[in-house]
Structure formats: structure tokens, C-alpha cells
From TrEMBL:
Family designation: Belongs to the RutC family.
NCBIfam families, A to Z: Rid family detoxifying hydrolase (TIGR00004)
Database matches in InterPro entries: RidA, RutC-like_sf, YjgF/YER057c/UK114
Protein's UniProt name: RidA family protein
Protein origin, superkingdom: Bacteria
Classification via PANTHER family: 2-IMINOBUTANOATE/2-IMINOPROPANOATE DEAMINASE RIDA, 2-IMINOBUTANOATE_2-IMINOPROPANOATE DEAMINASE
Length: 127
């Protein structure tokens, strides 16, 4: 059985998908970009702030599902320019303990939705 996770504290989907789906004890969070959930506006002026907003959107969805970043077991990071990796990684790293950080991949892609610099999805497990 699957349960749809929705929160007003993260951006509403911009297509035929949900913010997250809980199936059993596993939470699958759709890729998040730097859309401010309060204004609905895209915020891509500063890479550090853009990455932080992406992570805060993930956090809001985790919170709605009763989870935290400690429950995340896998992330996928998509970036438009690998030269931005170190700055994105620096911000991303502040949300995880290095000893228990999730598995992940980081992939440079030709384009992302709304031409953002970074998109991150996650899988978490409810203990």
C-alpha cells in the first residue's frame, strides 16, 4: 500500500507526480529544485542559497512523513555544471553526519527543470 505525502512547506509538484510516496517503511522523495514554497518563485541567483533551498524542501517533506535526514539512505544529485560540485557538496554536507551519510550519486546533466543548477531526490527508511 502506498501513501502520498504532501506538505505546503515544500513546492507543489509541477507535473503528474507527488512530492513523495511512502510505501511500507520506505519514503521516495521526488527531485526537489529551488522553488520557494511560500512564494512559488524560483530562487537561483546564488548557488549556495539555491542548494540550501533544495535541501530545506527535502527536509520539509521528510518532516511531513515523520522522518529526518538521519533516515535518508540514498540521494541522487543532478547538476547542470560539474564545476559547481564543490559548492553544492559543501551545503549538502551540512545536512548529514559524515559517519552516517547516505549513499548517493552526483550526475552532470544537459538541463534540469526550469534550467536550475541543482536537483536532489532522496530515499528514506522509517525505522
Amino acid at each position: 500500500m502506498k501513501k502520498i505525502i504532501k506538505t505546503d512547506n515544500a513546492p507543489a509538484p509541477i507535473g503528474p507526480y507527488n512530492q513523495a510516496v511512502l510505501s511500507g517503511n520506505m519514503l521516495f522523495i521526488s527531485g526537489q529544485i529551488a522553488i520557494n514554497p511560500k512564494s512559488g518563485e524560483l530562487e537561483t541567483g546564488n548557488l549556495a542559497e539555491e542548494t540550501k533551498l533544495v535541501m530545506e524542501n527535502l527536509k520539509a517533506i521528510l518532516t511531513e512523513a515523520g522522518l529526518t535526514f538521519n533516515d535518508v539512505i540514498k540521494t541522487s544529485i543532478f547538476i547542470s555544471d560539474m564545476n559547481n560540485f564543490s559548492k553544492i557538496n559543501e551545503i549538502y554536507g551540512t545536512y548529514f553526519d559524515a559517519e552516517t551519510a547516505p549513499a548517493r550519486e552526483t550526475v552532470e546533466v544537459a538541463n534540469l527543470p526550469k534550467f536550475v543548477n541543482v536537483e536532489i531526490s532522496a530515499i528514506a527508511v522509517k525505522s
